[in-house]
Design a protein that fits this description.
Blueprint: H1 4-14, E1 20-22, H2 25-28, E2 34-36, H3 46-52, H4 54-62, H5 64-89
Antiparallel strand pairs: 1-2
């Protein structure tokens, strides 16, 4: 628990978690109510982040063949979410 902020920072850095805000009042002003606060993820750190989490490490230990496939699917899903956030911003990716 003492390192939870560091773990949260790692999750954002690698793209597992994204920081965003939504302010519906901005829509009345003609502005985009969605804002993405996290930077472009460092996708090369994604797998390392998963392997450092106990819940994912236990899957890798019990089911090593399936784990690689699941970890790749998790990264693909995270990249899809990030692209959808960029679309909400109106940013070309």
């Amino acid at each position: 628990m003492g390192k939870s902020q560091a773990e949260e920072a790692k999750a954002v850095e690698c793209g597992y978690w994204h920081l965003w805000r939504y302010n519906p009042q901005l829509e009345a002003e003609g502005k985009n109510p969605f804002s993405l606060d996290s930077k472009e993820p460092q996708w090369d750190k994604f797998q390392d982040y998963l392997k450092g989490e106990v819940r994912f490490a236990s899957v890798a230990k019990q089911f090593p063949k399936e784990a690689d496939e699941l970890f790749a699917a998790a990264q693909e899903n995270a990249q899809w979410r990030y692209k959808s956030y960029l679309r909400m911003l109106g940013t070309q990716w």
